[in-house]
Design brief:
151 residues, alpha+beta, four-stranded antiparallel sheet, rod-shaped
């Protein structure tokens, strides 16, 4: 008895695997999914880089403000320097006045620190500003504080 291909029973060795059409359709579906997800992954990467830059900027600004507050403590019992008596701060003139100072943080970031004018009478307070700019000049973060000065 001769059997024809149309009378084959499912599950026989001749019916195992995927046809070429099924494989091509699956590949096209995976390609559509990849094209849909690719812009999302690129956007996530861009946001991660921006967040990393903001964290570096914020950290540098906080570090600079903390450093200035150590040199100009508000607590009068603190001795800033062995050459200064307790309660006396560094000279107000030592603060970056006018345009201030710029410090390169690398990767296109610049820390800018400046103080407003010294007071006419001592002790007094001086407003100090610290900010970080990126390579295009945009300010990423800014912090302000008032420092007590005694000379």
């Amino acid at each position: 008895m001769i059997r024809h291909a149309s009378t084959r029973r499912p599950g026989t060795p001749h019916d195992l695997g995927f046809s070429l059409v099924e494989v091509v359709i699956a590949m096209v579906l995976f390609a559509f999914l990849a094209v849909a997800i690719l812009p999302l992954l690129m956007n996530v990467t861009k946001i991660t880089v921006q967040n990393s830059e903001l964290v570096r900027a914020k950290s540098a600004t906080q570090h600079k403000i903390a450093s200035l507050q150590r040199d100009y403590p508000s607590n009068t019992s603190v001795q800033v320097d062995a050459s200064l008596p307790a309660g006396q701060t560094r000279a107000c003139a030592a603060l970056p006045q006018g345009a201030g100072t710029e410090e390169d943080l690398g990767k296109g970031l610049t820390l800018v620190t400046y103080a407003e004018a010294c007071p006419a009478a001592f002790p007094g307070t001086v407003a100090v500003h610290a900010s970080v700019r990126n390579a295009s000049g945009d300010t990423l973060t800014a912090m302000h504080t008032s420092l007590r000065v005694t000379q």
